[in-house]
Amino acid sequence: MAEGISLAEQGAIAKDFLEGLLRSMNITAEVSVRELDEETVELSVDANPPTELGILVGPRGSTLQALAEVTRTVVQSKSPGRTDRILVDVARYRERRVEALGRFATKVAAEVIETGEERALEPMSAADRKAVHDALTEVEGVTTRSEGDEPRRFVVVSPA
Predict the structure, then answer these.
(1) Domains of the chain, earliest start first
(2) Structure confidence by residue, pLDDT tens digits, 85-98
(3) Is 85 left (phi over 0), alpha (psi -120 to 50) or beta?
């Protein structure tokens, strides 16, 4: 837990911010808060139907990434100490993206094992790189590393 305010309080601040933002955009949606572990809280924005939430995700999740940064900044501004990890997901986009990246990474790993040649993936966000690394940690025969500088940082999958 961060010094200053509890993880639950950080989640409440983030929820209040997101609900206010949704109201100002005339978007009807529900914001739920879930503590994933002792240092991570996830806020999920969902609506039925989720069609009007696309504006919060943006192309390839770019708006969602910005929304998460702004939400973290709001929480940090109200905390006297450091804050914990605050994740934001809209219409399960982040969850589906992690699953899709896991499937993609597994296919790439199989190719690397078959050919014996390493493969550099396209540049991706830190969250996407983490999803790839996590998906391949248990795959025998390959290792992963990140290379390059932001915003062009990418994952390399190599034979073990």
Answers:
(1) 7-91 (3.30.300.20), 96-159 (3.30.1370.50)
(2) 899 999 999 989 99
(3) beta
Query: Can you read off the two tokens belonging to residue 38?
Result: 């002792």
Q: In the beta sheet, which residues pair with residue 147?
A: 154
Q: Which residues contact 125 (CB under 8 A, 6 or more apart)?
A: 61, 65
Sheet holding 119-120, edge to edge: 119-120, 154-159, 142-147
CA distance 27 to 30: 10
CA–CA gap between residue 144 and residue 121 (Å, rounded): 11
Report pLDDT for 126.
Answer: 83
The two three-digit tokens of residue 45, written as one number: 């924005």
What are the tens digits of pLDDT across the range 38-50?
Answer: 888 999 999 988 7
The 10 Å Cβ neighbour count of residue 13 is 20
